[in-house]
Specification:
The protein has 13 helices and seven strands. By secondary structure, the protein is α/β, with parallel strands linked by helices. The chain folds into three domains: 95 residues, Nucleotidyltransferase, domain 5; 94 residues; 119 residues, no CATH class. It has a five-stranded mixed beta sheet. It has a two-stranded antiparallel ribbon with strand order 6-7. Helix 2 links the parallel strand 4 and strand 5. The relative contact order is 0.07.
């Protein structure tokens, strides 16, 4: 059998497909493996280039194969899809991965460490818990409104409703309904406590790293956003410029240019939605502070005069993403802009 130099690995939960070629591009191996046979198979191979589509469990397999001495590259699935010739099956996907990983212009995903994945899990669980808190609060309000009991919007209004549920002498709520509402209240209390604990861990993760502490010096970047950047951007040097990082987050204009005519639209909204959302939220906080107390950024003041507040926030988010890249790659600290005196 010829020496395998490139392997495309299509991963799944139980069934894995391998497509290997030699230096001339001839197919050497094309086979299906069970989960238990993946590591023994690659342990017998000499060092080779292994391509895998980036997904939730691809980082685990990348680390396992790197430990065996292979050169593993992760690729976004949307960049692999054009290389699928015809039909959708595991063998065709593995062949497309094997072809895509050898392209000189292919963009790769940095393999994350278990610690980085753990921090991102904190953020994903935080989003889930916040959704559950909103769901429980809305359900409590809706059920109590069936008995004519309503309260103002906000935390104080919800606390008034929960106090009514806890009052056994209030006869407006039937016994069975009170039992259900007490269940919702108990779940809400648990979720709130879990959110607080989750936020404490995220703040600690941001302060534990030197990069996270430097990022928090940027206006509009708090512990939440700094922690998310450190966990999401495993290697900032993978982006050649700050604009590339902003484009990966989806904060650059969408292009529809042709025939030498440049047509730019709104932001692309491609890439990391969570980072984009947090950057815009942080930028809105900076703008609100600038409206009340002023700012040392003349360009921001001029932009706020010409554009709507949310448009200015997106522009500021783009600029913040570029500053984040600069600090992560250079190792420097944030410096406030100096106002030029006439």
């Amino acid at each position: 059998m010829e020496k395998i130099v490139t392997v495309g690995l299509d991963i799944a939960k139980s069934v894995f497909q391998v497509h290997g070629v030699d230096a001339a591009g001839e197919v050497v191996v094309r086979k299906r493996l069970s989960r238990a046979r993946v590591i023994p198979f690659f342990a017998k191979l000499p060092r080779c280039l292994v391509g895998i589509e980036a997904c939730s469990n691809s980082h685990h397999w990348a680390r396992e194969l790197i430990a065996l001495g292979h050169d593993v590259r992760l690729m976004p699935a949307q960049y692999v899809k054009p290389y699928v010739k015809r039909g959708k099956n595991d063998a065709a996907d593995a062949e497309a991965i094997c072809e895509a990983v050898t392209r000189p212009t292919m963009r790769f995903v940095t393999v994350k460490t278990p610690e980085q994945q753990s921090v991102m899990m904190l953020h994903r669980v935080r989003l889930m818990l916040n959704r559950q808190r909103t769901q429980l609060s809305n359900a409590t309000r809706a059920h109590m409104s069936e008995f004519g009991i309503v309260a103002p919007v906000g935390r104080i209004g919800l606390e008034r409703l929960l106090a009514i549920v806890a009052d056994k002498d209030d006869e407006r709520i039937p016994p069975d309904a009170r039992l259900c509402l007490e269940m919702l209240g108990a779940q809400l209390a648990i979720v709130k406590e879990q959110i607080l604990e989750n936020d404490r861990r995220i703040r600690a993760s941001a302060r534990d790293t030197e990069v996270g502490r430097r990022l928090m010096e940027i206006p509009g970047v708090g512990p939440l956003l700094a922690s998310a950047f450190v966990a999401s951007v495993a290697d900032p040097r993978l982006f050649k410029t700050g604009r590339d990082l902003a484009a990966w987050i989806g904060l650059v204009p969408r292009q529809n240019s042709s025939g030498g005519k440049e047509r730019l639209g709104g932001i692309s909204r491609a890439g990391n939605q969570y980072l984009r959302q947090m950057l815009v939220v942080g930028s809105m906080a900076v703008i609100r502070h600038a409206e009340r107390h002023g700012t040392k950024r003349p360009w921001l003041i001029e932009l706020m005069k010409r554009r709507a507040k949310k448009v200015a926030a997106v522009a500021l988010a783009n600029k913040t993403a570029r500053m984040v890249w600069a600090l992560m790659t250079s190792g420097e600290h944030y410096r406030e802009p100096q106002v030029a005196h006439a």
